[in-house]
Specification:
274 residues, binds adenosine-5'-triphosphate, alpha/beta, Rossmann fold, 11 helices, Phosphonate ABC transporter ATP-binding protein, 10 strands, cell membrane, ATP-binding, ABC_transporter-like_CS
Amino acid sequence: MLTLSAVTKRYATGDLALNDIHLSLPRGQVMALIGPSGAGKSTLIRCVNRLVEPSGGSIHLEDTELTGLSSGRLRQARRAMAMIFQEYALVDRLTVMENVLSGRLGYVGFWRSFLRRYPKTDVIEAFRLLERVGLGHALDKRADALSGGQRQRVGIARALLQDPRLLLVDEPTASLDPKTSRQIMRLIRELCAERDLAAIINIHDVSLARQFADRIVGLRGGEIVFDGKPGELNAEILTTIYGEEDWSNEEGEEDADDAMQVTPAPALAMGGGR
Ligand SMILES: Nc1ncnc2c1ncn2[C@@H]1O[C@H](COP(=O)(O)OP(=O)(O)OP(=O)(O)O)[C@@H](O)[C@H]1O
């Protein structure tokens, strides 16, 4: 559903952040993007939604070639690609519900969202999603009254309200404790399975990547140096990606049960799924 062909990015500073990236992501696949600082992970996911303009190559989302789109058509294409951020990117003074509804901005237009006049169907779906991510009790709380894990759940619900086909996830657990990090990764994983969503997750934590992704891509110096299954990651490959280190704590079997467990969405009285 997503195909990158010969994508390069050279910043104005001269840094070659991506060099000849070829990558194809099928529907429903959860891909973790790992690699050392400066490898190009953030640049890659931002090239997909063109928050960063690629310098060369092409990117297709299903039948749409993204790199050549005008700003109007790009806005439309971006509806299909939702982003989840490390620092959540919530509006602190707004409620949980209002933050989630802002996920419909690309559909309802600026004035309607500014006046908070969202269609009833959007509000009902926002309720359903907040229930699903475990925040049904916190709709009216201000975003700045939430814990980090709760804030990320709001970010996830907002992304899903956009009704995307692809999730672009930038270090979703970087500010979270180990237990909350696992809960958030598990939630993203479950939601992708429930909705047949593809995801690219930029993540530093190799064991989380190993545990919750279907596929791992390792970047180094702007190039793909590994593309395979989590179980294939061994000390030699980790050395290729990150350089020499004692990798004995990072090796071992992934916890397949944990990674694959999918909880069905709670049935809600308010209506059918999307
Ligand atoms: N806005 C920018 N202007 C110039 N160079 C940039 C810019 N953003 C990133 N770079 C450079 O591009 C390269 C890749 O950076 P990028 O942030 O994509 O890496 P990363 O793998 O996401 O790193 P990290 O894990 O630290 O976030 C680095 O050399 C970085 O210095």
